[in-house]
Each structure stands twice: as structure tokens, then as C-alpha cells.
Amino acid sequence: MLKKEIRQINNTKSMVQIAMLIALSIIGASIKIQGSIAFDSMPAYFAALYISPFSGALVGILGHLLSSAMASFPMTLPMHILVSLQMFFFVYIFGWLYENKSKIMAIVVATLLNGPIGALMAAPISKIFGLPFSGWPLFLAIWIPLTVATLANVILASIIYEKLSRRK
Known about the structure:
Elements lengths: L1 H7 L3 H17 L3 E3 L2 E2 L3 H9 L2 H18 L6 H24 L2 H26 L7 H32 L1
Helix pairs in contact: 2-3, 2-4, 3-4, 3-5, 3-7, 4-5, 5-6, 6-7
């Protein structure tokens, strides 16, 4: 299945779409919800539906790395690498669930993964890296806005995808 998805993006049209969606991630990063929490993941979730889950995962990982690089990696490069890897897997799971199981299940799972579960995973890692704002204080500060932002990003991506799918 993954080989098929990789072959699917090995054409000019898909590469251009992926590049444009990565650029939209960077633009979305400037639409802040709280701190560095923004609308940078919406293009990745959209790509997971419109192109393929693997394409969405690529947009997620590259979009996050580039948008955080433009902000000078506010949580340090290692933390942003961790977050971008989370994005890769969370977006892929979202696209796969949406395609193979249930739209509602995909939205709920993606929101939980990228919201409280992602924040919970980041909290101990931030402590290991010695970030000044780390551990439970970090988790308590970001899990609600991150969950709300994820839900908004996922729902917006789903609505845009559904509208474009009807036009085909």
C-alpha cells in the first residue's frame, strides 16, 4: 500500500500540489491561535484526503519543520523534529481512517492524537531536553488550545475536501 502511495506522488502534478500545500502550511503558521499553535496543519490534513495519506504526512512533516524554522524553532530544533514526526504519523492515520473507516472516527482520532496525546508525548521530552517551560506546566498550557486548533484544522480540511470532491 505504501509503495503505491509513493509511486502516486512521483509525478509532476502531485509534486506541485504537495509543494503548494507545504507553502500553505507556512502561510497558515502565521494565523495563530495561541503562541506557536496555528493553522499550519490544515493543508496536511487536506493533502491526506485529496492526494493520499502519505502525501498528507509529507506535507505535515515538511510544513511543520519549515514553519517552525521561519519562527527560529521556538521550542528548539529537537522538539520541533519530534513534533514534525508526530505530525507525519498523525496525519497519515487521519487520512487512512477517513478513507477506510469513518470520517467522524478520523476527525476524532486525529484531534485526540494531535491534541492531548501529542501534548502528553511532548511534555516528558521537553523535560529531557531541559526546556525552561517543560513537563506538566507545558502540557497544561498547551493541551486545550492544541486540541481546539487541531479540531479546527481537521474540520476545515474535511469541509474543503468534501466541497471539492462534489465538484468533480
